[in-house]
Amino acid sequence: MINEQEKTTRTKFNFLKQYYDETWDEAAHTLHVGLFKKETDSLPTAYKQATEHLLENIETIAPISKSSTVLDVGCGTGKTLIELCAKFGCSGVGVDLSDEQIKDAKIYVRELNAERKAKKLPKVKVQFVRASASELSQVFPKNEMFTHVISQDAIMLVADKQALYENVYRLLAPGGVFALADFLAQAAQSELTSNEHDLVYKMVNWNEGFSFKVYQQILQAVGLKIVKAEQRDQDMIWTYGKLAKKMKAYENKIDGTYTELKNRYEGIVSAVENDKMGWGFFFAEKPARKTALIAGTKTKSIGRYVAVALHKLGYEIWLYGRTAKNVDKAGWHERACDISSEKSIAKLLNEVKSLDLVLMMADAEGGHGILDGRYPVL
Ligand SMILES: C[S@@+](CC[C@H](N)C(=O)[O-])C[C@H]1O[C@@H](n2cnc3c(N)ncnc32)[C@H](O)[C@@H]1O
Question: Which residues of the chain are modeled with pLDDT < 50?
Fold first, then answer.
């Protein structure tokens, strides 16, 4: 169940959707701050660059691949997630509070998949859920479902931020990445004038935010390791400055919402210039489990027995045998490897990124021992 505050946020975003589509990013319907390589970059270019920046940094930590599972928190119209899943062939889930944003996302992915089908291209594997990021424990009860969690300019609006961060940690697989861009509250709300408060917070129901420093402390407090953090206030000034200018074209509209938006954008520029708010990127990693490389994939081998026990203790398992089939489950991999062949060992080690424990257990017969009795099941 969402609280009253989020009900109001939902109503606001449902209402503002048509204005944002018309004035923020007419072509792609994204709704985030742009990243500028130079001041003269256009807004659509800057929006794209912001997403590219997020993805490029993810690539340096834990690249997205076909087997990745990506959660987008506050996905809006889902454009980032859809494009990402189309590019990498991975699967994704987008969560957003707004009915209108989710409706748009579902229409877009349906149309895209129809086009892809006609071109005999595989379906883009994305789902969209209308829900609050405060209630991720109900939406996703299973742990470690995602290899990557992304979010662009949405978390500041989430009412129960503690629940959100704890759930992100729970939902990430070990070694997974949380990559986000968000608004920063560089001054306490009490330090804002009532005009600044109305312009910056009230219109979109922004309840609270964190400074650049506190943001990092919070991510660390839930167990994540900060890989990179960047404060990029100038990009926010340019984005909102350009948007405010753009809104001049709507000055003569009778509908007062256009003027309210223009005033808000100008208010944000001034709040950032006065160090009261800002914008930043955070790239954090859920520390990887310890990794064990173990010989013996046969159903009743000692290797498999020990591997299951270590997996329960939280180890990432790489189990190998001469004739094994490829298996990949959460924290569990099986591979064929012939240890009399250097090439075969090299191929296996190329996949195993780090190693904390190596177990090669041979029985008296020279094979990998066959045990009696009850076997634990993965
Ligand atoms: C500034 S927009 C960003 C949308 C999208 N990430 C993008 O880059 O285009 C903020 C989004 O957060 C969503 N939102 C607000 N509160 C939320 C919450 N509690 N849970 C999930 N989404 C929320 C809004 O509906 C809106 O779509």
Answer: 364, 368
